[in-house]
Design brief:
alpha/beta, 270 residues, 11 helices, 8 strands, 5-stranded parallel β-sheet
Length: 270
C-alpha cells in the first residue's frame, strides 16, 4: 500500500490537460487527463483502479479465507477448546496396531470430502469410549478446512450434549442465548462438512427423548455431509433413536464407517 501511495503522490504533481477521460461517464464526473514524466497521457482515476486492483483482490481473498477457514472455530459447539488442536499428525498410534488402521481409514474419509466438495455422503465412527473417534473426526475437519481451496469448504463441529444444552438454554432464555432452532439449522446448512460428536451421550443409555429425537432429525435434514461419532454400538444406536435418524446418519456412508469396538481406551496407555 505504501508503494501505491507513493505513485499516487507523484501523479498529483504532474501536468493537467484540458481534455477529459473517455471513461468520465463511468467515473461519475469529468476527470481531466494528465501527462506523466515521459509525456504520456493518463487518467488519474483509471490509473488508481489499475494500481489498487491487485491490492483489492488480495484483501478480498484474505477476507474470504478468514470467512471460510474461521467458520470452524467461530461457530462450533465443543466440550473443550483443545479439540481444535486434533490433527492426524498428533494422533498417537503404535506401528502396526489397530489404531493405525483407524487412522488410515480416517485419512481416506478426509480425502473423499476434500476431493468431492459437493458430493453428498455421511460417515460414522462408532464404538468404545476413549478410542480416538473425536480426535480423528476433528482431524478430518482440520485437514479439509486447511487444504481445500477451489472451492474452500466451511467446516463445523457440534457436540450433541452441548447442542442439546444450548437449545434448552435458548428455550429458557432466548434473550442471552443464540442457539434457537433457526440458528442451529442455519449454522449447519452453511457448512460444507459437519461433525456431530458424541451421539448418545445426551441420552445416558436410555431411549432418547422426543425433544432430542426432533433436534437430531432437524440436524440430519439440514446437511448431507455429516460425520457422526458415537460410543454406542450399532445395536445400541438403533435402540436409542428412531429408524429415520439412523437411516439419515448412515446415508451415503458406504466405505465411510469406522468400527472402534476393537480398540481399547487410548487414554489408558497414552
Amino acid at each position: 500500500m505504501e508503494g501505491i501511495a507513493k505513485e499516487l503522490k507523484g501523479m498529483l504533481a504532474r501536468k493537467v490537460l484540458p481534455e477529459v477521460c473517455p471513461r468520465s461517464k463511468e467515473h461519475g464526473k469529468p476527470f481531466h487527463m494528465m501527462l506523466d514524466e515521459k509525456g504520456n497521457k493518463y487518467c488519474p482515476l483509471c490509473e488508481l483502479e489499475r494500481l489498487t486492483s491487485p491490492e483489492l483482490k488480495k484483501m478480498q481473498d484474505e477476507v474470504k479465507t478468514r470467512r471460510y477457514r474461521g467458520y470452524l472455530r467461530e461457530n462450533s459447539l465443543v466440550d473443550r477448546t483443545d479439540v481444535f488442536k486434533c490433527t492426524f499428525d498428533n494422533f498417537k498410534v503404535k506401528p502396526g496396531s489397530t489404531e493405525e488402521e483407524k487412522l488410515l481409514l480416517a485419512k481416506r474419509i478426509a480425502a473423499f470430502y476434500y476431493e468431492n466438495p459437493t458430493k453428498k455422503g455421511d460417515s460414522l465412527l462408532f464404538g468404545n469410549a476413549g478410542s480416538g473417534k473425536t480426535h480423528l473426526a476433528m482431524s478430518i475437519l482440520n485437514a479439509v478446512n486447511k487444504y481445500s481451496k477451489n472451492p474452500m469448504q466451511k467446516c463445523l463441529f457440534i457436540s450433541v450434549p452441548k447442542l442439546v444444552k444450548a437449545r434448552l438454554d435458548y428455550q429458557a432464555d432466548p434473550v442471552t442465548n443464540i442457539w434457537s432452532a433457526k440458528h442451529t439449522t442455519k449454522a449447519i446448512q452453511k457448512a460444507d462438512l459437519v461433525v456431530i460428536d458424541d451421539l448418545g451421550a445426551e441420552s445416558a443409555g436410555k431411549e432418547a427423548s422426543r425433544f432430542v429425537q426432533d433436534e437430531l432429525q432437524s440436524v440430519y435434514d439440514s446437511n448431507q455431509r455429516i460425520i457422526t461419532t458415537s460410543n454406542l454400538s450399532m445395536n445400541e444406536l438403533r435402540a436409542t433413536y428412531h429408524d429415520r435418524i439412523i437411516s439419515r446418519a448412515l446415508e451415503g456412508s458406504y466405505k465411510k464407517l469406522i468400527d472402534f469396538t476393537d480398540v481399547n481406551d487410548k487414554r489408558k496407555w497414552l
